[in-house]
# Entry
Amino acid sequence: MGVTIKQIAEEAGVSRGTVDRALNQRGRINPEVAERILRIAESHGYVPKHHTITPPATIKIGVITFLSKRVFADVINSGIEMAKEELAQWGIEILIRKLDRVSDIDEIHAIDDLLAQNIAGLALMPVDSSLVRDRLNRISEEQDIPIITFNTDIVGTHRLCFMGMDNAKGGQVAAGLMGMLTHGTGNVLIVTGSFANYAYSCRVDNFVEELKNKYPDVQVVGVQCSFDDSTELENILVNALTMNPNISGVLITSAGQDGLEAAFKRLNLPQRPYVIFYDKTPCTENALRNDLGDFIIEQDNFSQGYQAAYALANLLVKKQQPSDEYMFTKINIQTKYNL
# Structure
């Protein structure tokens, strides 16, 4: 006699509803809890209903990420790799292309490479450029290939849905935190990673707008681009804080955050500015633990790639459309006390 959902729930220490969501990819669930449930189910030989689907032939799904050498991308890619392993049981092959930089030319080459492999669906972190936008629209219109974006979005395309943080709210959250830290007054520097990354731009725009509306005495003294490079971020901070020692807050939307510690060592400031990061990584965690930063705005990167792959699989195999155009992941605020 096979194991039941109730028995799996008891062994995992969760409810039957949580087990059902983990086994059938319904609703949101902590990735670590889902992985534990799946391991227990597999050890007992339990096969979820959706795993019994056998497509008539292998279906190929293309997935593209960028900044693959940055730590934050490791979490995204781990979600994609788990989906790849699980969806193989559906007869689905996930073809992954990891780009080192945010480049529209590189992304176009990756898209063309995947199209040559006869993919039936595409999930990607899109570079925000007219070149990529036009190519995606041609793919969806002329080849009828469904497209899902994750982590960052691109406007003006026929993509089915976006999976990731509500980056507008993410910018507002950062503004609220900065306003409280600075007591509603002072100068703030913004360091972004790339102006071709829609997520970065959306966070910055809404951060600035929310400060104007709620904290008008907080002045943004500059928005500088680090190209997601730690050395560039270090130099930006050293130059900005040397020229303007009255900067009381820094918002870093980019990768390469380890440049912060090097900058503070070079500056040897009597009092550092308040610092807010995005994405929970070993670097940002260490910054908080060592009192080099104050808040991390975390967006559940694991679920973004994982759920994007499953959304395409559900569409291609079950003909199940995404439930919403925007599938937002939860925004978590972390300090050194709750890492």
Residues 301-318 form the longest helix (18 residues). The domain at 167-298 is CATH 3.40.50.2300 (Rossmann fold). The chain is about 45% helix and 20% strand.
